[in-house]
Amino acid sequence: MASKARFGLTLSNRGVILGLTKPEEILQMAEAAEDSGVFDHVWVGDSIMAKPRMECISLMCAIAARTSRVGIGVACMATLPSRDPIVLAYQWASMDLLSNGRTILGACMGGSIGDQDHRTEYRNMGIKALERSRRMEENIAILRQLWTGERVNFQGEFHTLEEAFVSPMPAQSPPPVWVISNPRLSTGKPHIIERSLRRVAQLGDGWMTTGTGPVNDFVEMRRRIFEYAPEYDRSFEDRPCSVYYNININEDAEAAFDESKRYLDQYYSMSYRPEVVKNWVALGSPKECISQIGAYVDAGATDILLRIPSWDQAGQFRRCVEEVLPHFR
Questions:
Q1: Stretch (H or E) spanning 304
Q2: What angle separates helix 215-228 from helix 190-203, to the nearest 10 degrees?
Q3: pTM confidence score
Q4: CB 201 within 8 A of CB 234
Q5: For the domain that residue 170 is a member of, what is the CATH number?
């Protein structure tokens, strides 16, 4: 088994809405992750109306003020297609300065147009749902140009910039953008799967995916991204390949599954199929969790973002830090 990987702790800013946590507890968890020595970054989520939660940039700035070492990321920034790219570039540059260059932007297009709350969000934010991927790609391009410090002239499908600039510049040159891609290899349309993975290969400083499918799906998606990258005069060999994952440690694996499913169902306002929960959560004893996480490390995952789908956040955090993650250091 491969022995090392970087680990992130996903913080529950949606949990504030659901009564699962409080703002101060989120900040305390970020501090605990930094103090633990086994977490390399902390992450928050993003949504406005579709899955309401504390606003991500505001929260990340608070985390930056309470920490000094860990990276601070948003996974995923579902509102990226609907945000004004100049304002976002300005906000992000300032946040990167405040954190001394610790930010990571997880770029994604947002949730399914089949969900009523997602449609409501897109409509009120003034975008068409079918434009999301193109808007995301255009916004990434604009962000990167504005972060150079040069005045930008840009003519795109959705935005026109004339001598635009932001100042001050971010501490990183530029802040990394990890592109999210979660195609379903077994059920997705081949051309959509290819486009999604090519987007990562072409635009990503890293890749993030949600580990809801078999580990073999991760292996195949990673292989394709590596294969596509040279077509854009790029290589993905030294870039992060990350998995958004969960962990629930309990010697009674069935109890760990039951709690995880109840938590995730409540968090996302849906009922997950049992096989999705079993794929997406490291379940069981520390040894079993190490084995399940290790399968992704062996498959090439460089970074694994862990959320704790449990009402015992403190106890699960302690066991994760003391009994599971030291194995991978």
A1: strand 303-307
A2: 60
A3: 0.95
A4: yes
A5: 3.20.20.30
CA 94/CA 89 separation, integer angstroms: 9
Nearest to 264 by CA among 196, 227, 325, 210: 210
* CA 26 – CA 33 distance, rounded (Å): 11
Nearest to 316 by CA among 293, 291, 284: 284
The C-alpha atoms of residue 60 and residue 62 are separated, in whole angstroms, by 5
- Note whether residue 166 is domain-resident: yes
Domain count, the chain: 1
Q: Are 41 and 6 within 8 A, CB to CB?
A: yes
Residues of the domain holding 68: 48-176
Task: Report pLDDT digits (tens) over 81-126.
Answer: 999 999 999 999 999 999 999 999 999 998 776 677 788 899 999 9
Question: What is the tens place of the pLDDT at every residue in 283-293?
Answer: 999 999 999 99
Name the H helices within 6-106: 15-18, 23-36, 56-66, 85-98
For residue 302, give every residue at least 6 positions away whose Cβ sits within 8 Å of its Cβ, in sequence order, or none: 5, 6, 240, 241, 242
239 occurs within a structural domain: no
End-to-end Cα spacing for the chain: 12
Residue 96 inside a domain? The answer is yes
Contact 56, 16 (CB under 8 A): no
Q: Is residue 76 part of a domain?
A: yes
CB 237 within 8 A of CB 226: yes
Q: Which residues pair with 103 in a beta bridge?
A: 72
- Per DSSP, helices labelled H in 71-167 are 85-98, 116-124, 132-146
Q: What is the number of alpha carbons within 13 Å of residue 228 lying toward its C-beta?
A: 18
Closest CA to 184 of 218, 157, 156, 140: 218
